[in-house]
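Example S7 (structure tokens).
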């Protein structure tokens, strides 16, 4: 779903977001949704427990992502990009509404949602009022394994330090204004677990010139800093920091894709062979499986697994074919796994 050019102003400081989620539960599936050129926030969560994957918030006038009122969902693969003329924070994160609404602190449930594998591109290092992660009252959110770059404001701002106790770890912060630390380096966003290194994105552009490319190359440092994903039936196992590895899941269906922003070569290819023969062998107690398959030079491969065919989990990153048989030892901790290998 691509939601475009919304955001009617109802009254002062009250506009309609791209997608507002009010007390939505985790039985609702919100995946592959884009908000594009909206007059307010791209996405705003008002309470509830909804989980999301594969969200795009592009060129929206306020925050890319906004949270309120004790929301406690899980999220993975968020992509946000802002432009200098109209923007606020990359993410504004409230546990309770802003004043002048009445505040009851501490009110439950406390916001404790998780965001894994986001890529947030701000409005540029010379922009003003463009904080990356702004966390307000009664918010115990987690931001993990994310790339946050090109913001002119503060990288991490915790307005109610102590009342809000977020966990901000294993993220890359790159291209930022000098002196923008604020709460980055403090107890909730330790410097030892957040890294200043070039993630080597394929290209950053805010015009439809075919050069926006949020994917990375196999040599990118995003593969060096990832925290192991907590596999719980929703989160997908990844070996990288950020919303993208080497394939662009936002390419074909989005306004960014249709409008000519993305680099055309970032689309997933359909190289032959389309089916890869896979052989497996287990050790004596069944806790480890060896997955083997023939490879072709010029084709990349990824091993995935499932228990019941309802969803597939990445067991490896994309690897380049060598012309020989490739083998991987994969843990099978007390449960069956069915394997497949994807080529591209």
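Recovered sequence:
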């Amino acid at each position: 779903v691509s939601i475009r050019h919304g955001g009617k102003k109802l009254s002062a400081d009250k506009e309609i977001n791209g997608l507002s989620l009010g007390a939505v539960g985790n039985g609702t599936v919100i995946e592959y949704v884009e908000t594009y050129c909206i007059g307010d926030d791209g996405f705003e969560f008002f309470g509830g427990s909804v989980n999301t994957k594969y969200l795009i918030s592009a060129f929206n006038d306020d925050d890319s992502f906004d949270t309120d009122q004790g929301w406690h969902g899980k999220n993975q693969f968020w992509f946000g990009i802002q432009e200098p003329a109209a923007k606020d924070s990359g993410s504004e994160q409230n546990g309770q509404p802003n004043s002048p609404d009445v505040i009851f602190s501490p009110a439950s449930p406390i916001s404790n949602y998780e965001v894994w594998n986001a890529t947030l591109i701000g409005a540029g290092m010379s922009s003003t009022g463009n904080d990356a992660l702004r966390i307000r009252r009664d918010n115990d959110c987690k931001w993990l394994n994310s790339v946050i770059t090109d913001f002119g404001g503060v990288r991490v701002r915790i307005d109610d330090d102590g009342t809000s106790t977020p966990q901000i770890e294993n993220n890359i912060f790159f291209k930022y204004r000098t002196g923008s630390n604020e709460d980055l380096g403090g107890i909730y966003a330790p410097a030892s677990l957040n890294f200043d290194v070039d993630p080597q994105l394929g290209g950053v552009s805010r015009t439809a010139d075919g050069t926006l490319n949020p994917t990375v190359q196999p040599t990118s440092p995003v593969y060096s800093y990832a925290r192991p994903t907590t596999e719980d039936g929703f989160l997908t196992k990844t070996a990288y920091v950020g919303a993208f590895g080497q394939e662009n899941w936002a390419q074909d269906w989005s306004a960014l894709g249709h409008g000519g922003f993305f680099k055309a070569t970032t689309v997933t290819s359909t190289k032959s062979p389309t089916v890869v023969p896979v052989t497996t062998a287990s050790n004596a107690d069944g806790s480890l499986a060896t997955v083997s398959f023939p490879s072709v030079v010029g084709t990349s491969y990824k091993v995935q697994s499932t228990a019941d065919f309802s969803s597939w989990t990445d067991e490896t990153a994309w690897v380049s074919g060598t012309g020989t048989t490739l083998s991987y030892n994969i843990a099978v901790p007390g449960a069956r796994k069915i394997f497949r290998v994807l080529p591209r």
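Notes on this example. DSSP finds one helix and 27 strands in the chain.
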